[in-house]
Amino acid sequence: MLSKNFVPPASPLEKEVPIPMTSSIVPGSLCMSALLQTLDSSLSNIHFQYNGFLSGLLLLSITRIYQERNLEGAFWFAVLLNLKHIYLFVAPAYFVYLLRCYCFQSHADGRIRWDSFSPVRLISLGIIVLSVFAVSFGPFIHMGQLLQLLSRLFPVKRGLCHAYWAPNFWVLYNVADKAATVSASKFNLLAIESNRTAVMTGGLVQEYDHVVLPSITPFVTLVVTLLAITPSLFLLWSRPRGPASFVRALVLCAFGSFMFSWHVHEKAILLIILPLSLLMLYKKKDAQLFLVISTVGHYSLFPLLYRQQEIPIKVCLLLIYTLYIYAGLGKMFGFSWSWSSLPLLSQAESLYILGLVPLELYNSVIHSALGLSERLPFLPLLLTSFYCAVGVTYSWIKFYWLTFQEKPRKTEGKMQ
Fold it and tell me: Transmembrane ranges (predicted)?
């Protein structure tokens, strides 16, 4: 795995590293390895999607940005984007950061120096990125298959949600529409066709209309996604504080895209967890949020491993990883286990995380024991998606708040 033992170095523009690293503290590289091995085992080796390889390239690209080797970072991200277009979710963060911090200089207070723009650097970035795209798309353009390729890359006819709903805002929207439909039908408030009430929870990849709430189109999701990520990009442009601020913007772009994009796959949660893991060693609040989103994000992938014989594998992997990361970060920041809360987490957050236990018991044992597998086959997926969507939404809002709470620091005037 590329960059498997990566620990982000302190950037010249990111001086605050408040945790003393001693031999008694779990090293960040071990936490990172545990994270990557868990994801590799559960997704790459079983689900057969090569996510570990792609995650390695993402970390390699971010590493080059941290090392101020920006052209290499741009190259590896361009390669990554052409290998799997889901990484388009975080492309805006790369574009804004490289344009702002590689092609411009800053004043001491962080304001941009417009007279410092370097056309040579912009052209260098353009040549690198366009060269990668030319190699990737050139054969398809030569054969006249570009439109066919784009239609397969962006299949808008597959519907708002995947067969298993990714735990994002549209899950909450779908559930609200379903609840409103049931209520309206029960009290005869609306004339509702029976086939319309069931198609949304049929577990199929298809287009459907909402019954009570307004139906969502791809254009609506595009607009909402852009609105969700724009504040983070504006902050990155106006208050750049080195590579750490780039990673924060990258995480927020991944968050916003995951929350509101069209037909999001549940594996896209990894685009949030992996970059955020690079920030968890710097500040306690980032570590707290990482514990919540990583636990919920890992659990939200359980439905991908749906066979009975895979239940012990995924449960043991998540349990081992969770115990390791909670103990390691708890010790690092001086928090221990207690009867009232998990390390670093509030009582409410701890209660929510522990709620995953009865949820999994119901999904794996109780649902089939009650004989509901035939009559309500989608219910376990619905419960998992809805419960995890609550945690993901909470984490997104909290991370945005934490990012905007950061005080601007003075930056150096050099180009990076």
Answer: 73-99, 120-141, 216-237, 249-282, 288-306, 318-339, 378-397
